[in-house]
Amino acid sequence: MIEVHLDAWIREFGPKGDELVEAASVAQMLDELERRYPRLRYRLRDETGQLRRYVRVFVDGEDVSRGGRTDASLSGARTVDILHSIAGG
Amino acid sequence: MADKKVRVLLGTRKGAYIAESDTKRKTWKVGKVSNSGREVYHVTADPRHPGYLYAAVNDWMFGPMVHISKDWGKTWKEAATPLMPPSKERNPEFGTDSGEVQRPKHALTNLWHLEPGHASEPDTLFLGADPHMLFRSDDLGASWTPVPSINEHSTKKDWAPGAGGPCMHTILVDPTNAQRMYVGLSAAGTFRSDDGGKSWKAVNKGVETPFLPNKYPEVGQCVHHVVLDPAEPRTSYRQDHGGMYVSHDGMESWTRIGKFFDDDFGFAVAAARALPGRAFFIPLEGRSRVTTQGGLQVFEWNDPKKKWRALMSAKAIPGHFGVHREGMNTDTLDPAGIYVGTTTGQLILSPDAGKTWRQVPYQFPSIHSVHVASPAL
Questions:
Q1: pLDDT (mean) for B364-368
Q2: Range scoring the smallest mean pLDDT among B87-96, B185-194, B214-223, B234-243
Q3: Does the beta-carbon distance from A48 to B91 stay under 8 Å?
Q4: In this complex, which of B60, B63, B78 lies closest to A46 when CB atoms are compared?
Q5: Where do the domains of chain B lie?
Q6: Which of A37, A41, A47 to mutate to test the interface with B (most CBs of B within 10 A)?
Q7: Which of A57, B13, B161, B258 could bridge to A65 as Cys pair (CB 3.0-4.6 Å)?
């Protein structure tokens, strides 16, 4: 099981805190989170399946979300952090 | 839930606000922000369902959303998410995501305008979005269906994005004819449907495109905003990138009326129920897109007399700021109230059809849209 740490902003859409997820890829992990919390659908990924521009996914501390990709493997991963990037103004 | 309040709904760069007054429109109370921190491009009220408000919300992190309130903005709830339809051509970047679900190649970016349908269709809403998309809902936002008759119009190859992107920003439903509606897209122009949205005709004849080699093409005009004359909806008033125009034949043809000005560029235009045959325009400098003559100016076009009249001196509210395409609106009272929201966050209004002007004592974020929910009297 992978421990998924969710940015506090994401809790608006249902999750109360961290989640434990079994998944082989970032895409599968997001599928499972969206199954548990349907309001998350289209909030982290858009309708093309790409991560939204300011959503960052780190697997064991490494950013795997560059270019919006969600195909990174979670094989052997212990933690995932889903964060918002520094932006705005 | 009908009451005697005048509510000015503001979409701003950092959320939505409601300023409330009574029919005298002298003192104003500003409520707490909703969707704080999010870009709200448009907020509107539904006259078919008093108390129902709709907001086009664009969150920089979480993307576009439609929010609906059923209690005059006390509480809001997210409606269904409008989505780009799947395309035949898949985005190769995402070939390895979960499953073999057919997906669109591009996502919707921003939601621009929400419009209640005709009174005879009380559960119908229309939504305009970027890129050049019209959606229809027949269940008050519980689901959204793209309207391919305009989204895939035969002239689409000649559409281009405006500076705000390829946006569907103006949606007008003829109150006297449920089958007739109009849309405005940048930079594609205006289109009319006479069959409830089944088919669309480009209606831009006479509107100049100073930014194209062909100055009068069928489509490609950068329309900024259009309103119908409330008393005679075959008459419409248009603020285009290429100037100020009027049409008397359901937008079939347009006549330029803005040559009165050195520069008839602008974004906002409005008309009022109590003032048939009149329209209000705010000229801006075409290059900088801010106020001319050192301050805000609102002009009234008297269509029967074909005359312009300044409703305020540029010295009254001095400054160097803009007014967005949905930045001016009117109420349905008599005398008409005229409301202007600025890019620097002032809400300026006249409660007497332009005789006097005042400013709501509240500094808002940059204002994208102004819509007045008038009391049913």
A1: 98
A2: B87-96
A3: yes
A4: B63
A5: 6-83+106-373
A6: A47
A7: A57
Kindly provide the b/e burial profile for residues B260-272, where b requires at least 16 CB atoms within 10 angstroms of the residue's own CB: ebeebbbbbbbbb
Residue B282 contacts residue B298 (beta carbons within 8 Å): yes
Q: For residue B208, what are the contacts with CB-CB under 8 A and spacing of at least 6? A: B215, B216, B221, B240, B242, B243, B256
Q: Name the residue of chain B whose CA is nearest to A69's CA.
A: B94
A64-88 confidence digits (pLDDT tens): 998 999 999 999 999 999 999 877 6
Query: How does DSSP assign B62-110, residue by residue?
Result: TEEEEEEESSTTSS-EE-PPP-PPP-SS--GGGTTSSTT----SS----
- What span, in angstroms and rounded, lies between the C-alpha atoms of B7 and B30? 10
What residues of chain A lie within 8 A of the CB of B84, using their CB?
A: 47-48
Chain A residues lying within 8 Å of B107, measured CB to CB: 46-48, 50
Q: pLDDT by residue (tens digit) across A28-45?
A: 999 999 999 999 999 999
State how far the Cα of B240 lies from the Cα of B225, in Å rounded to an integer: 7
For B284-289, which contacts have Cβ atoms below 8 Å and span 24 or more sequence positions? B284/B322, B284/B323, B289/B265, B289/B322
- Tokens for B323, please give them: 């007014």
Say which CATH topology domain B6-83+106-373 has: Methylamine Dehydrogenase; Chain H (2.130.10)
* Structural domains of chain A, with CATH: 2-84 (3.10.20.30)
For residue A49, list chain B residues with Cβ-Cβ distance below 8 A. 91, 94, 97-98, 101, 103
Residue B358 tokens read as 């005042």
Instruction: State how far the Cα of A79 lies from the Cα of A75, in Å rounded to an integer.
Output: 11
Cβ contacts of B343 within 8 Å, gap of 6 or more: B290, B321, B322, B323, B324, B327, B366, B367
What is the ipTM score, two decimals?
0.95
